[in-house]
């Protein structure tokens, strides 16, 4: 059980709530150019370059995606075409939630104020949030913060907007790299790791591991 009553439950969106299909979409667009092993390598490079692209000064999320694909193509010898890369960016607002999310969020929203802090563009996020099927108190984007997670500036923006402190929230994410490591460093004492199997559990960062959003609701006594 999570023995804590948060002022807000704050969420990562893409990957944690929304079924983030960057790898799958890349396979659809580039799978005819590479064999299975090379395609798996392509997806891994794409994942790594996306993280690298968000670690500096803020840039539009469109540029994050396009630059990541360009660098991946250069690394793997695949011809780069910006129009193809933009198909991935354009697909993002079409993605819906993981199957467990609507039920879990509905249970959590019955008691708590829910907040999203997402590495998203403003023009994308409303479509993804609408598909989650639950009310959110606030939705903040990297575009608004002018910084992407895992940079502290993104979290600091959220806390300033909410007028609260790190110890007031329960932060929920499926990613240590983007969220939970920074949350730990910032003094967010209450953290939940939703194990979506795309990153391993890392107990050092003092998280409550949950297998789904309904499981998180159970941990909070709902």
What's the short story on this structure?
With 222 residues, this protein is α/β, with parallel strands linked by helices.
Structure, described:
The chain is α/β, with parallel strands linked by helices and 222 residues long. The chain has 2 domains: 8-19 and 95-219, HAD superfamily/HAD-like (Rossmann fold), CATH 3.40.50.1000; 22-93. It contains 10 helices and 6 strands, in the order E-H-H-H-H-H-E-H-E-H-H-E-H-E-E-H. The chain has a 6-stranded parallel sheet with strand order 3-2-1-4-5-6, sandwiched between helices. The longest helix is centred in the N-terminal third of the chain and has 18 residues, at 36-53. The termini are close together. It is an enzyme of class 3 (hydrolase). GO terms for molecular function: (S)-2-haloacid dehalogenase activity. Its EC number is 3.8.1.2. Pfam families: Hydrolase.
């Amino acid at each position: 059980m999570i023995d804590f009553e948060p002022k807000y439950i704050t969420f990562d969106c893409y990957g944690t709530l929304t079924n983030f299909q960057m790898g799958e979409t890349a396979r659809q667009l580039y799978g005819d150019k590479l064999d299975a092993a090379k395609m798996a390598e392509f997806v891994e490079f794409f994942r790594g370059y996306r993280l690298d692209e968000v670690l500096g000064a803020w840039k539009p999320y469109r540029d994050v995606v396009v630059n990541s694909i360009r660098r991946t193509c250069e690394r793997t010898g695949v011809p780069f075409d910006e129009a193809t890369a933009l198909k991935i960016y354009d697909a993002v607002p079409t993605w819906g939630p993981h199957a467990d999310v609507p039920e879990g969020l509905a249970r959590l929203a019955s008691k708590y104020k829910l907040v999203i802090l997402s590495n998203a563009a403003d023009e994308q996020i409303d479509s993804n949030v609408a598909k989650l099927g639950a009310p959110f108190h606030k939705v903040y984007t990297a575009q608004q913060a002018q910084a992407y997670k895992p940079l502290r500036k993104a979290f600091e923006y959220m806390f300033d907007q909410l007028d609260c402190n790190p110890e007031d929230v329960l932060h929920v994410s499926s990613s240590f790299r983007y969220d939970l490591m920074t949350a730990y460093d910032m003094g967010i004492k209450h953290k939940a790791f939703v194990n979506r199997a795309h990153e391993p559990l890392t107990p050092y960062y003092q998280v409550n591991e949950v297998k789904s959003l309904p499981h998180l609701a159970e941990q909070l006594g709902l």
